[in-house]
Design a protein that fits this description.
single chain, alpha/beta, five-stranded parallel sheet
Length: 192
């Protein structure tokens, strides 16, 4: 019997309904349409401290990250999910600070489960000001995701990104919204 996929969406914008969040919701909608269960995490509402490089999470018999904050419940959810959607606006030529904090603290994830990134399916959604994904810095963030998740054995299923400055502007890009929905369906599909 086929088990429905669990998809965990990480919104890295300070705006709940910003452009990257709109793209992430379209991906989530596509995943739901394909039968996945979806949970969304609004990172800006959480208290997530920066990694303090104590390496407690890397020691033998580690009990996990030594920082007791809102990241703790996310570790178990990250392990349980089959797929993640990572969404961020471009801030100063890369991902937002909210998303970078979460990503840095994911360093501790192996303390919570063996090979937790291996086979994890990932979709990325980004919005940027300007017209060019290169000079806006979007490509810098996309390369960071590609390099990091390749290194840990996760699989990026696809990326959607587009130009939009004011909250909601991305809705005018109908082709991109359609692409995001299709990416969600692909994310929840076993045949990829």
């Amino acid at each position: 019997m086929k088990r429905n996929k669990k998809v965990l969406v990480f919104l890295g914008s300070p705006r709940r309904k910003g452009n990257s969040a709109i793209l992430a919701e379209r991906i989530a909608g596509g995943a739901r349409a394909a039968g996945a269960s979806v949970e969304t995490v609004f990172l800006h509402a959480l208290a997530i401290a920066p990694c303090k490089a104590c390496y407690a999470c890397q020691k033998s018999k580690s009990k996990g990250c030594s920082i007791g904050d809102d990241m703790q419940p996310l570790y178990r959810k990250m392990i349980a999910a089959d797929a993640w959607v990572i969404a961020s606006p471009v801030y100063w030529f890369t991902m937002s600070a909210q998303l970078k904090l979460w990503m840095d603290r994911s360093f501790a994830l192996p303390a919570y489960g063996k090979d937790p990134f291996e086979g994890k399916r990932i979709a990325v959604a980004m919005a940027y000001g300007g017209e060019d994904p290169f000079d806006s810095g979007c490509v810098n963030a996309l390369r960071t995701f590609q390099d990091a998740y390749h290194y840990v054995g996760a699989k990026i299923i696809g990326m959607v990104y587009g130009s939009a400055m004011e909250a909601g502007d991305i809705k005018a890009n109908k082709a991109l919204l359609k692409e995001a929905t299709a990416l969600g369906k692909k994310l929840a599909d076993d045949n990829d």
